[in-house]
Amino acid sequence: MMKHKILPLAAIAAALMAQAAGAAVTADEAAGLKNTLTPLGAEKAGNADGSIPAWDGGITKPLQGRKVGDIPGEIFAGEKPLHQVTAQNMGQYDALLSEGTKALLQKYPDSFRLDVYPTHRTAAAPQRVYDNTALNATRCSTRDGGYSLEGCIGGIPFPIPKEGVEVMWNFLLRVEAPSIEYRFKNIVGNADGSHTLATRNEIAFQYPPYYEDATIEKWSGEYAMFRFNTLEPPFKAGESLVIRDGIDQKNARQAWQYLVGQRRVRRAPTVSYDTPDFVASGANYFDEVQGFFGQLDRFEWTLVGKQEMLIPYNNNGLVGARLEEALSRHHLNPDQVRWERHRVWVVEASVAAGKRHAVPKRRYYLDEDTWLIALIDGYDAEGKLWRTTQVTPFVVPKIPATLMKTATVFNLQAGTMSVIQALNDEDFKVVERKPETYFTGDAVAADAAR
């Protein structure tokens, strides 16, 4: 049996005691970003047995072959799995599996498995992102108990994190293109194995910290804004939602919704936290979209450590598959999902004092190279495993970056799943940025009136 324990954080305990919460690291620590660490803060070296290679710069050049818009449909064509993890042999890989992955193997022993491929550290980013990340390391800090951010722009805010909330900020401000557009479907997997289209939508996303001319002085603090329009089913066609998220907890989320039946735009303050996601027919919570979506203040975030795990990775092939090929009855099609061995940061979220949440405890596993969430396990009020999420990232050399949009949330107790923002059979484009006035309730109202 493999033994890969979570690395203890005792080595940095003294530094934690000496530093204010969320403080930037020293210049000496930040120097590691130029030698032992990658420019985004991962360990540059491979692991002891070579199953995780050293980082060599990632994928930065265009790839040939089929594409889903600007997403290459495959990046390692012809590569075969090293081995498979099944319900029958999962004990051999116990230390590399999350509790949620183990639960899926046990719940669906005849259909769910992990095809484990050679590990490729494909993460890359533009040079300006590397430069900004190095600056952020010594200037970025949190306030308001960790729930607000200041002093950073255009890169990972905490490439050498000391606290769990810093790791989560790294995810929220992960590397993105300044502006993208795509279409997606939300699919509900029912307990009987059937699938239902919840909605099909078109969406525009914009990420102001990653504008090429962004500066701390010019930046408003809004780190993500999107506007989407529902295309299907017919009775929901024309509905719109606009969201703008910011780094100041006092004004962390602004949201507007257009309902065709009411023919008006209204504020949507409940589009957050554990409100059932109406875009997915309520099959998941809003803060489960794209792994985690929204404000951090419902939880206290504990940095558990770092460990090696099997996680979904380099899943361009899954994105490039037809939707019917990508899905099995109760989970994603194992033939289409690529798993690799990587180092992950482990962060535990516990509902904060005086707050409430339908999922009072979660454990997040975030890839060290990209700061993307890979897996999540959610526990109910009795401490029983209730939900688990798989995120399937893909490489976009045009940026260059590794992105994630699709998250599959499994309700283990109900036997259902919600495939959020499936890109299969759709289109994904890196585009010129729009005026920020496009991402307002007034703009939606004006378009609806035409």
Q: Which structural class should the secondary elements be placed in?
A: alpha+beta
How many distinct beta strands? 22
Major beta-sheet overview: 14 strands, antiparallel
Q: Which geometry do the CA atoms define?
A: globular
Measure the end-to-end span.
Answer: 64 Å
Fraction of residues in H or I helices: 10-25%
Name the helix and strand elements from N-terminus to C-terminus, one letter apiece. Answer: HHEEEHEHEEHEEEEEEEHHEEEEEEEEEH
Question: What do you see in this structure?
Answer:
The protein has 450 residues and is an alpha+beta fold. The radius of gyration is 21 Å and the shape is globular. It is built from 8 helices and 22 strands. Mean pLDDT is 94; it is low at 10-21. 13% of the residues lie in helices and 30% in strands.
Brief overview:
The chain is α+β, with helices and mostly antiparallel strands and 450 residues long. The protein has helices at residues 13-18, 27-30, 99-107, 127-139, 164-172, 316-320, 323-326, 441-449, and strands spanning 67-68, 71-72, 83-85, 114-116, 141-143, 148-150, 179-189, 195-206, 222-232, 240-246, 253-259, 264-267, 299-312, 339-351, 361-367, 373-379, 385-391, 394-396, 401-403, 407-411, 416-422, 428-430.
Descriptive key words:
450 residues; 30% strand; 8 helices; 13% helix; alpha+beta; globular
